[in-house]
Amino acid sequence: MDLYGWIQLALFLGLLGLLAKPVGLYLVRVLDAQGKTFLDRVLKPVERRLYRFMGVDPRKEQDWIHYTVSLLAFSLAGLLFTFAVLRLQHFLPLNPQKLGPVGPHLAFNTAVSFTTNTNWQNYAGETTLSYFSQMVGLVFHNFVSAAAGIAAAAVLVRGIARHSTRALGHFWVDLVRVNLYLLLPASLIFSIFLGSQGVVQNFNPAVIAAAVETASPRDSRTEAGAQTIAQGPAASQVAIKMLGTNGGGFFNANAAHPYENPTPLSNFIQMLSILLISSGLTYYLGRTVRNQGHGWAVWSAMALLFLASVLICWRAESGGNPRWTALGVDPAAGNMEGKEVRFGAFDSALFASVTTAASCGAVNSMHDSFTPLGGLIPLFNIQLGEVVFGGVGAGLYGMLVFVVLAVFLTGLMVGRSPEYLGKKIEAYDVKISVLAVVILFFSILGFSAWAAVTQWGTSALHNAGPHGLSEILYAYSSGTGNNGSAFAGLNGDSPSYNVTLALAMLAGRFLMLVPVMALAGSLATKKRIPPSGASFPVAGWMFTIILVATVLIVGALTFLPALGLGPIVEHFVMTGSSLLY
Description:
This protein has helices at residues 3-30, 40-54, 64-87, 104-115, 125-128, 131-161, 171-197, 234-243, 264-288, 292-318, 322-326, 344-357, 372-383, 394-414, 427-452, 455-458, 465-480, 495-525, 541-575, and strands at residues 207-210, 222-223, 226-229, 419-420, 423-424. By secondary structure, it is mainly α. The model has no long low-confidence stretch (mean pLDDT 89). It has a domain at 393-580. It is built from 19 helices and five strands.
């Protein structure tokens, strides 16, 4: 754990905190249907024409039921559209490699994956999907699924801020404004930056290059002294996959590929971009509910959980693997198995913590090759519910569910009537908040248990014992948490895994989303009561600590037994601990 790592970590957290306010202020303008932005002069006519085309009156708002139905219907239409693109890609343009159609089970899994903002990939992008499938079928969802998550968070924040009303905004207005004023311009600027760093952006077919080494019979990319180097429109996809916390790589190696992530600067900015909007949404929360201290308390809780995950993962990876040390490998560089030498142990640990704190899933190293405790951190980050900043929108509304639970539990402990920003938290609010959390638990543990005791589940493993269990647990955690990263020792491209992982993704996105929207509707209809001595403060370090404790206790009580059988047992095996005997 060297000085370079400490400086970069401090710089990363410092910039994330400094940018939270300007990003949050801009989000306030974007998420207000009447808000003014510096892009209005160019984009306002486009916005009006889009409303006219869709038959939407931006002045009318929806209640939570109509808003949710609009979101679900749009998502279903997008899922069917992408499924059709993948199945018919051999008939569509921009297919220089003459790739055939994607199989039905894989196409279903992929369509669900991108619709739910998961971007789990049971395929290698450069050898399975055409440029058209990547740019139209997948990037379309990179924008709209991210926008839908931000819109859902805005609905819950409006429900907290408003009172005695059923109006919570209009889905189509939020969808248009988030894409038009936020995601599209930000992605354009970011993709230009990535191009300046060396990320490719073209429509050229793959290049056949002379290989430095003799071709390996096991390497399908090489033949008799030549190597196939894939190209394509990567920069535009990398930009939105990071900003929208999507994570799906244009290339199979994702952010470890030099055409996706060529320099230390591109690596740092990509990590920052993953958390940028989610961090800004906490400031948007504080400004909208007129309690900026509450917004910063939520940000601080997320930052504490994130910092803890980085430090534990970094310590585990920089300490190296004692098995390699015993064989004479110098431990000074840490555990470098599965990592890019140009990034090293710290940047790999930081990237792994960032991408699993957010529901992004982009990776610049192989999580399967982390030490057991190093690999436990990305897994546990996801299992907490992707609330450590989390995906764009999804992280905030997930954390606000824990806020409601924290206020309720604290009220029980001190004998006060639970109140949250002038509104009583009643039995209905607690029930639907618990339902939103429990759905994730049942999906992760239920599907993992099913796969662990069936032939189709265990036959896809490349590792036995506790590491094999970790691979299964990580897959369904990643799917349910809409993360998309993987331990990678699991062969997920089978009908059983494609379908069950798709069901886990749908549960993690939409079965959780409905209770969240119901919570927003319930809070919006409540009358606001004046603060009193019995009101519990939701700002300051005391509330931050309570919120962190709530998240950790719920996560630990639920997943610690499964983690004990997976990465924790594997750690003792690696170190040869006598506790096993």
